[in-house]
Specification:
alpha+beta; 5 strands; about 35% helix; about 25% strand; about 90 residues; five-stranded mixed β-sheet; globular; single chain; YaeB-like fold
C-alpha cells in the first residue's frame, strides 16, 4: 500500500527555510520523504506518536538530529507533514 504526501503551504515555507540552512541534508531529506510515502512504518524512520501539546501528531527521523512532525491519516492513506527541524524546533 502506498500513501500520499499532502504538503501545505505552511509546511512548504518551513521546509524551504530549513533546506536553505541545511543544504547538505537535501538528499537525506528527500530520501526520507520517499520512504515515508512508500512505508511510513519502516524502522529507519522511527515513527512514533507525540504527546502533550502535539498529541495526535507523529514524528519521524531524518537523522539523529532532525525530525519531521506529521499527521498520519491511515483511513485516507494520507500523510500531511507539519514541521521540519531539529528536536527543539519541532517539539
Amino acid at each position: 500500500m502506498s500513501y500520499k504526501l499532502v504538503f501545505t503551504d505552511a509546511y512548504n515555507r518551513r521546509a524551504v527555510r530549513w533546506l536553505k540552512r541545511h543544504p547538505y541534508l537535501r538528499q537525506q531529506y528527500l530520501k526520507t520523504l520517499q520512504l515515508l510515502e512508500v512505508n511510513p512504518f519502516h524502522p529507519s524512520l522511527r515513527l512514533h506518536a507525540l504527546s502533550g501539546r502535539l498529541k495526535g501528531l507523529q514524528s519521524i527521523s531524518i537523522n539523529l538530529s532532525y525530525r519531521i512532525t506529521l499527521e498520519l491519516l491511515i483511513r485516507d492513506e494520507q500523510i500531511i507533514p507539519i514541521n521540519v527541524g531539529d528536536h527543539d524546533a519541532v517539539y
